[in-house]
Specification:
By secondary structure, this protein is α/β, with parallel strands linked by helices. It contains 16 helices and 13 strands.
Length: about 375
């Protein structure tokens, strides 16, 4: 590393939070390593940042946009329409890779990531990819053959890859932002910061950016009962469903807070939560890092049932309760909330096992490998 003074890394991803946020966590880890080891890293983003372009702009990372194309896993006429878009994005990627000449490419996946990966491999630039789910996506399966290293959040994801590609795999967990894991507030302080009673339990519902109408409707129904039992609720509805939920909750108690989404306060939310109710995307690694017990309701129609598999693995670790949407009911949800909140031993055991499951060093490990490959 002494001879390495300056490198360039291309960051590649689709435009969803599940792709962008881990990529930003890796960027943060790379910045830290560069300061520790005394060299400079230049970055460029190639892909479609979606609603997250501002985050790259604030970090002074140039954005090289390409057309996004999506390969569907089922027979559809749309796949025929996507082919010209992919071909165009491939030539766009070739041009950007040629001009930028990165030393290594880091891809977090997503519909727009395959073209830059193939382009980089044609220029013999090392490619590193990361898969967040317990079953690899189609993009990951296609990208694996062009990749030097395949990082996985779950060991189970290896089963979905070819034998020769499994040899490239390293299980590290999901990259988390260093800012999320530093200076974590004590639970009572975090509840106060969010304007809750620090002496009472807090249940956090995370609906994601889109939210879930079915989950929202159930939460609205159980608010009065939980409030009477002294349980507080912080309900993130998703931006599209916020007004709908707000109208449905008549005369909300002081113990019930409603929000569209969590932003900079997410660290306080995780620190304050006695229980989290959520879907089962890659955010479970964030719950795990904070040792928050959880009830997971996996999205049933998600690609290749990856949320169902994610939830199953996390449940086997003992850190959560899983309720599949086909079994979801008011009685079952209420029963499990009360059981975890009132059984202190159970909650402490779930919290301990969640922390055991967490892998907070994932971003740094990936960053170290990227620098190693850039120095080859």
């Amino acid at each position: 590393m002494d001879k390495l003074k300056k490198i360039k890394i291309a960051l590649v991803a689709g435009g969803t939070a599940g792709h962008i946020m881990p990529l930003l966590a890796i960027h943060s880890a790379l910045q830290r390593l560069s300061k520790e080891k005394g060299f400079q890293i230049d970055f460029v983003f190639i892909g479609n940042p979606g609603n997250y372009a501002e985050k790259f702009t604030k970090l002074n990372i140039p954005i090289k946009r390409i057309v996004s194309s999506k390969l569907r896993r089922y027979l559809s006429a749309r796949n025929i329409l996507e082919l010209p878009k992919f071909i165009f994005s491939f030539f766009q990627s070739m041009w950007h890779i040629f001009l930028e000449r990165p030393d290594v490419v880091m891809s977090k996946g997503g519909p727009s990531s395959l073209a830059p990966i193939i382009s980089a491999s044609l220029f013999r630039i090392p490619v590193v990819i990361h898969e967040s789910d317990a079953t690899p996506s189609v993009t990951t399966k296609l990208s694996a053959r062009f990749s030097r290293v395949i990082f996985l959040a779950f060991n189970e994801a290896k089963k979905g890859l070819a034998a020769n590609e499994q040899k490239k795999c390293e299980v590290v967990g999901n990259p988390l932002r260093s800012s999320l894991l530093e200076n974590i507030s004590e639970k009572h302080s975090a509840k106060k910061a969010l304007s809750f009673n620090p002496e009472k339990p807090l249940v956090v519902i995370i609906g994601g950016s889109q939210g879930s109408r079915r989950i929202n409707n159930l939460i609205v129904q159980i608010v009065p009962g939980l409030s009477e039992e002294g349980i507080q609720i912080l309900h993130q509805t998703g931006s599209k469903l916020f007004n709908e939920v707000k109208e449905a909750v008549k005369n909300p108690p002081d113990s019930y807070h409603l929000t569209e989404f969590f932003n900079e306060d997410i660290k306080e939310v995780f620190a304050a939560a006695d229980l989290i109710i959520s879907r089962a995307g890659s955010s479970i690694f964030e719950f795990a890092a904070f040792g928050a017990p959880s009830i997971l309701i996996p999205l049933p129609e998600a690609a290749q049932n990856h949320q169902v598999l994610n939830a199953s693995v996390y449940k086997d670790a003992g850190a959560c309760v899983v309720i599949e949407e086909k079994d979801l009911s008011l009685a079952l949800l209420t029963e499990n909330i009360n059981r975890i909140i009132t059984d202190k031993h159970l909650a402490e055991e779930m919290s301990f096992l969640a922390k055991e499951f967490a892998k907070p060093e994932a971003a740094r490990r990936i960053a170290e490998k990227l620098i190693e490959l850039a120095d080859d």
